[in-house]
Structure prediction request, 451 residues.
Amino acid sequence: MSVNLKRLTTLPFLLCLFLLLLNDFYLKATFHNAFTGKLSDFCGLFIFPIFWSVLFPARKSTIYILTALFFIYWKSSYSDPFIHLFSEYLFTIQRTVDFSDLFALMVLPLSWYALSLPQKRTYFNPQLAALLVFFSFCATSKPRPPSLYFETPQYVLFPSTVHLPDSNAVDMGFRIYNLDTLLVIQAEQIQMDREPVKNDDFNKNLILKDLDKRVLSELSRQYHEIPEGKINRLTIKTKDYQDHLIFRGSRLDGKFLRTNKGQILISGQFKNGIEDAVWTFNNPSENTSVKKTFNNGETVRIENFASSKLTSSESPMTRKDTNLFKGFQLAILFGLFTAIIFQLRKNHKNTLTVPENIKIGYKLLLCISLPFLSWFLQFMIWTIIPDHYTASFQQIAALFLIYVAGIPIFAVLLFWLKPRKQSDLLWYCLLLALLFVFWQEAMMLSSLLEN
Prediction:
């Protein structure tokens, strides 16, 4: 195997590996343009089949064919169900459907040729090269922060001396309109700074507070701000609707109206760029409508109507409600934790007999196996807690932490404290599970309160 691994230390292979790691961990995040996107594809397709062909030399042709087929599948919309499933239950992965990426397939013949070149003497450790390749496949690029999609129309206004091209097609989540000396930009989505703890209206309001600055940052443009007291009334016309806007400075402020052929599609009120009061969303073709009531930018009530009759209503939780509910959950967990401690203390007092003499081998087996039971109990509690806001993939980290902490804890219990009853072992497992869940939820509440 060491002789074969030396093929991972050729100059073309190491150069592509270096460029792949540099691009994924620095260039993409810094520049994020078409070149950095294509560079990863070319370098990755060069080293990927070489790596696996070195490990399985008899399957070289099969590996190259499967690499090409999988790359085509990955870059098509057919891979969307797999990506959504993987992102929901493990961790988020990102991919852009761009058929121009398929040009990277032309590097496969070069990769094949590089693999067949005579092996020259090298001073780079082949095992280290293999480890770096495996790391590059697992780590990939640092994912960009997620984007926030706006349910209500969002516009910002700037004075424009240099016009941007009009765009009625979404480009980077924006629609751009030039009106004489004014530039109107509709933001349909905006990139967030980080993954939110809870993607709710409170988080949306934090983004909206400086939406104008965020838009300029993504467009890499500099414009003078419009004075806050300056009022502009504008109408944006598209083939599907007309938006009637009132700007105070650069932000929407006042009544908003979207119409089409004399019918009102959306009506509402903005206050400093944030939704306020009652918003109505009409669907004339189905004769249905939705009314949303906002308080400080957060949805407090949603009413659904069909033929002007109320069909359903709900009151979503605000961030304040979420924090109170999370605190209530912590109080329940603390109460259960305290009750188990009292039960264990009671068992210790009431059991006067000498604890059973458990063999050392059986104690060691319990020390190894009981942390798994604690993790399973923690997982069951975690699944029934409403609004835990944690990813399923984090349970792998939870298993590791509970196992590392659980082994010494159960060693102390079995070899020193010596439980009075066999049922006490189950109580201790549940106690450790509750303690870990309490810590998780306390950290979650702390994150929710950060803002």
